[in-house]
Design goal:
four-stranded mixed beta sheet
Length: about 210
């Protein structure tokens, strides 16, 4: 059984539709700690603002509970950011699972000619980072059968810095952690549920961990 964490910030329809596409129908949307603890896998999706989302986790006592889980856990987008040490979005302390900080893209600090030279896939680099981009330097079974340089879908203005827990890298303005992994915890800054066949394979890989 797959447990999707209920903290009023997840894009549940997109996530559950993605689970159905890979053949998974045994899931529950919950904030019940007992159910979360017994689940085979746990998903922590998220949209919105990090400090607000972190407060919602804390209201339910999930900010300290989630780091104690021992089964595979996957954060998505803001869910991943909440698993980091801190976020500049609202200047909030997060769960500290991944040993990195979440920073805001600073496109305006670079001259236009340098921005344009950083990634030829984009006609210009703006914040937020929206659209298809590549993941490289892939590590861990989360990326089984995923090609180096595969394209996935992003929508974000904040990013996790590169660190020892980085398991996929993306370049946009600067290099950042496209995905993170430590022990039984994984996180994707990109949206696998919106990333077509590549994203479906990543979700399938997670379910098979």
């Amino acid at each position: 059984m797959i447990a999707i964490v209920n903290y009023d910030t997840g894009n549940i329809c997109s996530v559950t539709n993605a689970l159905r596409r890979v053949g998974c129908t045994d899931w529950v949307y919950t904030d019940d700690k007992e159910i979360l603890m017994k689940a085979d896998k746990v998903l922590l999706p998220g949209v919105g603002e990090a400090s607000t989302a972190m407060a919602k986790l804390a209201e339910r006592g999930l900010d300290t509970f989630i780091p104690t889980l021992t089964q595979p856990v996957l954060g998505i987008c803001v869910g991943t950011q909440l698993m980091c040490q801190s976020s500049e979005e609202g200047n909030v302390e997060c769960m500290g699972i991944f040993r990195t900080r979440v920073k805001k893209f600073q496109a305006d600090i670079l001259p236009e000619e340098q921005l344009l030279s950083l990634n030829s896939h984009f006609s210009s680099l703006k914040v937020p980072h929206m659209g298809w981009n590549q993941i490289t330097h892939l590590r861990t079974p989360l990326f089984k059968d995923i090609d180096e340089g595969a394209y996935i879908y992003y929508v974000h203005s904040f990013y996790p810095e590169l660190c020892a827990d980085t398991i996929a890298t993306t370049q946009y303005i600067n290099a950042f952690s496209g995905a993170l992994g430590r022990d039984n915890f994984f996180g994707t800054q990109f949206h696998p549920e919106k990333s077509g066949a590549v994203g479906a394979q990543i979700i399938k890989n997670f379910l098979e961990l």
